[in-house]
Write a structure and sequence with these properties.
The protein is α+β, with helices and mostly antiparallel strands. It folds into 2 domains: about 160 residues, no CATH class; about 120 residues, no CATH class. It contains 12 helices and 10 strands. Strands 1-2-7-4 form a 4-stranded antiparallel beta sheet, sandwiched between helices. Strands 3-10 form a two-stranded parallel ribbon. It is globular. This is Epoxyqueuosine reductase.
């Protein structure tokens, strides 16, 4: 007969699958001892660039029990975003695949709240919080602890069956559950494709990313003008970058997502190089009405386009 922790875990994983999550793993809520010195060193070396928020809540990033009182479990989930279609004009400025459809923050938050409600209805009163890339949670570390995959040399979480084109999210709850075994094996081996392919050499060494050089950071997080030193090195990216994932051998297993809200905006996919160079604020608002690209605002996207257009 299953004990409660095991039974509850199976129920939660079944419901997560029904909601469309690709994987669900569970880890014990405790201090991330191994990650503490790595995070401290990364911040000390200023590899986080202007993302000052990364310096905040250092202790909370390492201990989920400071985020949810008396928390017992971290439920890690993945949601596939790999698209079936791509931008049609190979000469057009590029947008990272994760931003083709609706803003993932809201899509995933809705699913997480449904899962949290399910736990409350089926198991009982459970305190918990949902997290999607917008709070001090080291999601890749928790996903690894929950047995979902390993952290690749490009710092992305990789799964043998699905590659790395997926979002990570968490529920931190005060419920004792059955914990999955941490993922122990690094399946990158001697491969350095991601390091070799990075146009701006942002992967300083395996697992160490200098955000100051990362195209995703430069096109999304950076608020000032892009350093001219990156001219001719942006590989035509105007929002985000997929290079280190595109070259990863494990992503040959990526399959198109089945989430309707991630269906690419057809107008976005069909826009040609000239359309992007002449984009108006009205067109921007129409195309990116419910998109994560809104984060850059019209001013930010046109800054990026202006920066790369000399090489288009």
């Amino acid at each position: 007969m299953l004990n409660n922790a095991s039974r509850y875990s199976k129920m939660i994983k079944a419901e997560a699958s029904r909601l469309g999550f690709m994987q669900c793993g569970i880890a014990k809520a405790e201090f991330l001892e191994d990650e503490a010195p790595k995070l401290e060193k990364w911040l000390k070396n200023k590899h986080h660039g202007q993302m000052a928020y990364m310096e905040n809540h250092f202790d909370k990033r390492l201990d989920p029990r400071l985020l949810v009182d008396d928390s017992k479990s971290v439920i890690s989930l993945t949601l596939n975003y790999f698209p079936e279609e791509r931008q049609t004009d190979p000469a057009a400025p590029k947008i990272s695949k994760y931003a083709y459809g609706a803003d993932y923050h809201q899509v995933i938050k809705d699913k997480l709240f449904q899962l949290l409600n399910f736990i409350g209805e089926e198991i009982g009163e459970v305190a918990g919080r949902a997290f999607v890339d917008s709070a001090p949670v080291l999601d890749r570390a928790w996903a690894k602890r929950a047995g979902i995959g390993w952290i690749g040399k490009n710092s992305n979480l990789i799964n043998k069956k699905n590659g790395s084109f997926f979002f990570l999210a968490e529920l931190i709850v005060d419920l004792e559950l059955e914990y999955d075994n941490p993922f122990q094996t690094d399946h990158c081996g001697t491969c350095t494709k991601c390091i070799d392919a990075c146009p701006t050499e942002a992967i300083l060494s395996p697992f160490v990313i200098d955000a100051n050089k990362c195209i995703s950071y430069l096109t999304i997080e950076l608020r000032e003008e892009i350093d001219p030193a990156f001219q001719n090195k942006m590989d035509n990216w105007m929002f985000g970058c997929d290079v280190c994932q595109d070259v990863c051998p494990w992503n040959r297993f990526s399959a198109p997502n089945v989430e309707p809200l991630f269906k690419p905006n057809e107008q976005l996919l069909q826009m040609k190089r000239e359309d992007w160079l002449d984009i108006t604020e009205d067109v921007f608002k129409t195309i990116f009405k419910n998109s994560a690209v809104k984060r850059t605002k019209f001013k930010g996207l046109t800054r990026n386009i202006d920066f790369i257009k000399k090489t288009l």
